[in-house]
């Protein structure tokens, strides 16, 4: 296939799909060895609860999922307003107000969600949703999972982080605008719901489907084996009651491990409707860190993907 510039329907971002670049020298996936968890020194392991900030929530006793404020927060509920700059048109700042929580996904000393049972992943995901619901007044809630040091995990024990912000980031606002514009253009259509319906009809980028969700490689995949999980029936907010897609999420991570031979470094996040979104649909994105961002990506915002999503979906679908 000749290189193509594709536009992501949800974000408007462009990706160059160039599968032939996978054959260039040095283009193979060099996945670093997995991190390990030492329960004796790991602050997220049972018995070391005193090493974390005060507990906000736990599931069961002994606990199965545990939540506390981040010890080194990016957002704080009592953040002070910065002094006003003399040239406000050039230099603006606002307090980094909000909440920044850590959700330990399991007591098990493992590094990846794929290493847990499906039941435990479902329990962790339900806790993600409960904590997002606890911050329903935030303008934007962004839940992430970073797996492996190479993907930004400072501690190896599997955990999620929740950022509850009092502003809507530009990338999320752009998606909100695209959902709204699509609804106007189609007289009430839901952008992601219609996208899922069309992808299911075509089948070429579908990886798996269950009763709750659809797993697919997005048309304009930003990285090799980029995956998106979307609900079978459109719902704006992940935190509201209804299916979470947790079982299919677990399946997706196991498929990645089976295809690559090891759980890769990855970033995962939950996109839910921000404030002001009259039309939206939640989704979960998974982006393995198999290649490096370089000058093209950093300088232009255009990603370069060396595995076509159709090929990635076919390989993962067969597993």
From TrEMBL:
The active site is at residue 159. GO terms for biological process: galactose metabolic process. Signal peptide: none annotated. Residues 3-169 form the Galactose-1-phosphate uridyl transferase N-terminal domain. GO terms for molecular function: UDP-glucose:hexose-1-phosphate uridylyltransferase activity; zinc ion binding. Keywords: Carbohydrate metabolism, Nucleotidyltransferase, Transferase. Pfam families: GalP_UDP_transf. It comes from the Bacteria. The keyword Nucleotidyltransferase applies. Residues 17-59 are annotated as: Disordered. Residues 48-59 have a biased composition (Basic and acidic residues). This is DUF4921 family protein. It comes from Solirubrobacter ginsenosidimutans.
């Amino acid at each position: 296939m000749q290189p193509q510039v594709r536009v992501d329907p949800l974000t408007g971002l462009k990706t160059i799909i160039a599968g032939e670049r996978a054959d260039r020298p040095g283009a193979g996936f060099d996945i670093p060895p997995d991190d390990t968890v030492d329960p004796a020194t790991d602050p997220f392991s049972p018995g070391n609860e005193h090493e974390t900030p005060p507990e906000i929530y736990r599931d069961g006793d002994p606990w199965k999922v545990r939540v506390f404020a981040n010890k080194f927060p990016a957002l704080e509920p009592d953040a002070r307003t910065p002094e006003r700059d003399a040239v406000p048109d050039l230099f603006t700042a606002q307090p980094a107000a909000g909440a920044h929580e850590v959700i330990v996904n399991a007591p098990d000393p493992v590094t990846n969600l794929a290493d847990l049972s499906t039941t435990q992943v479902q329990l962790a995901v339900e806790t993600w949703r409960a904590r997002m619901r606890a911050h329903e007044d935030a303008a934007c809630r962004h839940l992430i999972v970073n797996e492996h040091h190479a993907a930004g995990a400072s501690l190896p024990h599997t955990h999620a982080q929740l950022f509850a912000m009092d502003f809507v980031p530009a990338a999320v606002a752009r998606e909100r605008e695209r959902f709204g514009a699509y609804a106007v253009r189609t007289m009430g259509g839901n952008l992601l719901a219609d996208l899922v319906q069309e992808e299911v009809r075509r089948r070429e980028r579908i990886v798996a489907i269950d009763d709750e969700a659809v797993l697919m490689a997005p048309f304009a995949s930003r990285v090799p084996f980029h995956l998106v999980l979307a609900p079978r029936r459109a719902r704006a907010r992940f935190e509201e009651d209804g299916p979470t897609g947790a079982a299919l999420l677990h399946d997706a991570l196991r498929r990645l491990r089976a295809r690559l031979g090891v759980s890769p470094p990855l970033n995962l996040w939950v996109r839910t409707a921000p404030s002001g979104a009259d039309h939206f649909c939640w989704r979960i994105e998974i982006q393995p860190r198999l290649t490096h961002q370089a000058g093209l990506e950093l300088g232009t915002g255009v990603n370069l993907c060396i595995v076509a999503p159709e090929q990635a979906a076919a390989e993962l679908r067969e597993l």
